[in-house]
Design brief:
The chain has helices spanning 80-90, 94-101, 155-163, 173-186, 188-208, 212-244, 252-318, 339-360; strands spanning 38-44, 49-54, 69-75, 108-111, 116-125, 129-138, 142-147. The longest helix has 67 residues, at 252-318. The protein has eight helices and seven strands. It has two domains: 38-288, 2-Layer Sandwich (Beta Polymerase, domain 2), CATH 3.30.460; 290-360, Magnesium transport protein CorA, transmembrane region (Methane Monooxygenase Hydroxylase, Chain G, domain 1, Up-down Bundle), CATH 1.20.58. The chain starts with 37 loop residues before the first strand and ends in a 5-residue tail after the last helix. The chain is rod-shaped. The chain is 51% helix and 14% strand. By secondary structure, the protein is an alpha+beta fold.
């Protein structure tokens, strides 16, 4: 006979590596499900801005050098030729391009001769927590960002560029890179607010009507919070490296803003730890609630059984059917005119007396 075992929902693997083992370094293997790339360019200076979408990456050099700062954003990594063309235009190392298309990388920071390479992970919350890899290349007068798919948290930065709000139009490319990193870090706060509300709902559910679905919700929340912690921890280390390491592409002024972004990442870590402890406490609260509920049920059943024990004894006495005509001691009350009401009344008195005793002892009520 086949053994019975608990069936848990299968989670998708954390890493989907498409490069075969032993492949040459720098091999680009594109995810067949990745969307085709869409290239958008924002070229700007203190007084003017141009925003366009281009089809051919070979048109990017027309913007470089013509404007003080150029931001090239690529949504989608589904075309190897486009990735290779970007590598040739910006002189990117083949290993860097491999990290771009293999989107399971942890956040990190690497310094090269002509550019700085930063990987960050942008949170996305649907049914469960997941992240999208964002690769950022910072050059002397450009910022290149590559994302897995369309849709990001950079729209506030774009609005600041279009409306000349803030410092982004008056600073160099390193400040734009900081603004993008800050937008990614700040996008974790709405996600954590969602988990905070979920934990409140789970706590209320435990207090009202806990069930197996409650435990599943708590476990899923704990799993997601662990994923957030695994993501934000190297993110914090990356920001610390950007602040600590000396780079000619990052000015001291921008490092001051990066320190603020680093503080935000520490705040996120603290929130994650707090919510994780709350989720662990909810498991204990659930077990206590279930145990208390079981104790209440057992108490009610015990009281009912205790009440019926003397009633059963009385009914058993009157059910022995000793013949009173043989001996005057053989249940003379069977011949009483009110013998049956007397037995019932005796049972009622016993029940009321026991309930009064239980209440006085504060076992019930």
């Amino acid at each position: 006979m086949a053994s019975k075992r608990m069936l848990w929902p299968r989670r998708r693997p954390l890493i989907r590596r498409r490069t075969p083992p032993g492949a040459a370094p720098g091999t680009l293997v594109i995810d067949p499900q990745a969307p085709p790339p869409v290239i958008s360019v924002i070229a700007y200076g203190p007084d003017e801005l141009v925003e366009e979408t281009i089809d051919d990456p070979r048109a990017i050099p027309n913007y470089l050098g013509k404007w003080p700062i150029t931001w090239i954003n690529v949504d989608g990594l589904g075309d190897a030729d486009t990735i290779q063309a970007l590598g040739e235009i910006f002189e990117l190392h083949p290993l860097v391009l491999e990290d771009v298309v293999h989107t399971h990388q942890r956040p990190k920071f690497e310094e090269y001769d002509s550019h700085t390479f930063i990987i960050t992970r942008m949170p996305q919350f649907e049914e469960q927590f997941r992240t999208e890899q964002v690769s950022i290349f910072l050059g002397a007068n450009y910022v290149l960002t590559l994302q897995e798919r369309p849709g990001d948290c950079f729209e506030p930065v774009r609005k600041r560029l279009r409306n000349q709000r803030g410092l982004v139009r008056r600073h160099a490319a390193d400040y734009l890179a900081y603004a993008l990193l800050d937008a990614v870090i700040d996008s974790y706060f709405p996600v954590l607010e969602t988990y905070g509300e979920r934990l409140d709902d789970l706590e209320a559910e435990i207090s009202e009507h806990p069930g197996p679905a409650t435990v599943a919700g708590i476990q899923q929340t704990k799993h997601d919070l662990q994923a957030v912690r695994r993501t934000i921890w190297p993110q914090r280390d990356t920001l610390n490296a950007l602040i600590r390491d000396v780079s000619p592409l990052i000015s001291d002024t921008t490092r001051v803003f990066l320190r603020d972004c680093y503080d935000h990442s520490i705040h996120i870590m603290e929130l994650v730890e707090t919510y994780h402890e709350v989720a662990a406490g909810l498991i204990e609260l659930y077990m206590s609630s279930v145990g208390h509920r079981m104790n209440e049920i057992m108490k009610v059943l015990t009281i009912m059984a205790t009440i019926f024990i003397p009633l059963t004894f009385i009914a058993g006495i009157y059910g022995m059917n000793f013949n009173p005509s043989v001996s005057p001691w053989n249940m003379p009350e069977l011949n009483w005119h009110l013998g049956y009401p007397f037995a019932l009344g005796l049972m009622v008195v016993v029940v009321v007396g026991m309930l009064f005793y239980f209440r006085r002892k504060r076992w019930i009520g």
